[in-house]
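B., you asked whether I could sanity-check this one before it goes into the benchmark set. Here's the sequence:
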Amino acid sequence: MASPNIFYELSQEADRDLEDIFDYTESHFGRNQARGYVSGFEAVFQQLCNTPHVGKHRKDIRVGLRSLVKEQHVVFYRILTDRIRIVRVLHGSRDVLNFSQWQP
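And here's what the prediction gave me:
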């Protein structure tokens, strides 16, 4: 179980990913669907704060990187001393092994 003081933070890239997910979902499925889908990530982020080791190790991409699937998307994150850093939120169809924008 995580410390009660653990929190999450979004990288700029992850924040941008969520905006892109919202825009795509809104244009294809409407504003209400977009709001609901993107707000669902909050529950995933809180789950990571409570059980940070729940995600899969992704050392195939970067050492220390983990991932957790949420429907059609994959949340990539790192466990730091006092927080969870959400690195990216990418669609599951992306070729993440060859993705060029991973943070070190």
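One thing to flag: The two ends are 26 Å apart (CA to CA). Otherwise nothing jumped out at me.
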